[in-house]
Automatic annotation (TrEMBL):
Gene3D superfamilies: 2.60.120.1440, 3.55.50.30. InterPro entries: FecR, FecR_C, Ferrdict_sens_TM. It comes from the Bacteria. It comes from Olivibacter oleidegradans. This is FecR domain-containing protein. Residues 172-267 form the FecR protein domain. The chain crosses the membrane at residues 68-89. Residues 310-369 form the Protein FecR C-terminal domain. Keywords: Membrane, Transmembrane, Transmembrane helix. The keyword Metal-binding does not apply.
Length: 382
């Protein structure tokens, strides 16, 4: 298992262009010794290729070979799959959809999501951020709110006044389906807000605690302040930290709330039965609808992939996969007939159009099409 993880890391570095010359030569040599077919390989052939490459990993001699950049990347991608499928959305003839196995109808395509959000001020005024120019966009008491050149929302704090000390004042940012946004809270905490999410936070810099309320998903890099703990309230739980990095997925349509710790430490408290757990880096707390709170080791790269511009799945059921696509592309997903009982593993870039993402399903002989019904965009799967 440990050797397999090393293999995956090497192949991921190859696909990202981060290999040393020696490592790149090794991957290309493994590929060069495989018998590559022109057509989409059968599942049995894929499994044979994977076994073949794994066997070659144990061999140490390195020989110079001709470059195989395009095709070696495809085989590297194949090896990263746990179910014989991995789709990296870069040009590759080897993994284009085959019309013999699936149909993706040539309907109008759906563009990926982008930076879109609405800011609600303490006085109730709403500002559409993606339609606002860079620079100062609002004034909250003595605080100025800016949209910088990177599209981030930041606060420039002024001096405290009496109202700040006695009356809590809150702002809310919400992203629509098909949107995401990055903001820096008044205390310096950085927040990445995923699609169909919202966060409510105090703008008073001198309150005794830092409490935010989250619906949906967000990644936090919390500014350290030993005198004021940072708390996130979301769907039946409260997460408390002093300064750390973590991700919370708390969508209402997901069966489990997931809190994944990247750096530092956090305490997760379940609010119904008052259960608590402490997380260490690399751990994930899961809170289900029966208020059962558990902890396990997490694949951190999967948990924060959305922040880094990717979907990343590890044996995810098709329902969870399609819920993520639905939120990001602002589209309804309709299953015609029984929902397929399959799991998917792999990575997909979020900046690609929906039709390219749907090609992933061609490996499972599923027919997909994009339709607009009564003005509503739909992905039909059968």
């Amino acid at each position: 298992m440990e050797e397999h993880e090393d293999i995956k890391k090497l192949l991921k570095r190859y696909l990202a262009g981060e290999c040393t010359p020696e490592e790149r030569m090794r991957v290309e040599q493994w590929y060069g010794q495989l018998d590559i077919q022109a057509e989409e390989p059968a599942k049995e052939q894929v499994e044979e290729d994977i076994i073949d490459i794994r066997n070659r990993l144990r061999r140490s001699p390195i020989r110079r070979i001709a470059p195989w950049y395009r095709y070696a990347a495809a085989v590297a991608a194949v090896l990263l799959l746990t179910v014989g499928m991995y789709y990296q959305f870069k040009p590759s003839d080897r993994f284009k959809s085959s019309s013999k196995t699936a149909t993706i109808a040539s309907q109008p395509d759906i563009a990926p999501g982008r930076n879109r959000a609405i800011l609600k001020l303490a006085n109730g005024k709403e500002i559409i951020l993606d339609g606002s120019p860079n620079g100062e966009i609002a004034q909250e008491g003595t605080h100025a709110i800016f949209k910088n050149v990177d599209g981030e929302l930041v606060y420039q704090l002024g001096g405290a006044n009496t109202s700040d000390a006695t009356i809590p004042r809150f702002n809310t940012m919400r992203t629509p389906r098909g949107g995401q946004y990055h903001l820096v809270l008044p205390d310096g905490t950085k927040v990445w807000l995923n699609a169909a999410s919202s966060i409510t936070y105090a703008i008073n810099g001198n309150l005794g605690e830092r409490l935010v309320k989250l619906e949906g998903e967000a990644y936090f890099e919390v500014a350290k302040d030993a005198t004021r703990p940072f708390r996130v309230e979301s769907k039946g739980q409260i997460v408390e930290v002093l300064g750390t990095q973590f991700n919370i997925n708390s969508y209402l349509d997901e069966p489990v709330v997931k809190t994944t710790l990247i750096e530092g430490s956090v305490r997760v408290a379940e609010t119904a039965e008052h259960k608590t757990v402490m997380l260490r880096p690399g751990q994930q707390a899961a809170l289900d609808r029966q208020s059962h709170l558990s902890v396990k080791q997490a694949d951190v790269s999967d948990a924060v992939a959305w922040k880094n511009g990717k979907f990343s799945f590890n044996r995810a059921d098709i329902g969870m996969v399609m819920r993520q696509l639905s939120r990001w592309y602002d589209v309804e997903v309709v299953f015609k007939g029984k929902k397929p009982e399959i799991t998917l593993s792999g990575e997909v870039y979020r900046n690609t159009h929906a039709s390219k993402v749907l090609e992933i399903l061609s490996f499972y002989k599923l027919n997909c099409r994009i339709e607009t019904v009564n003005g509503v965009k739909q992905i039909i799967i059968q």
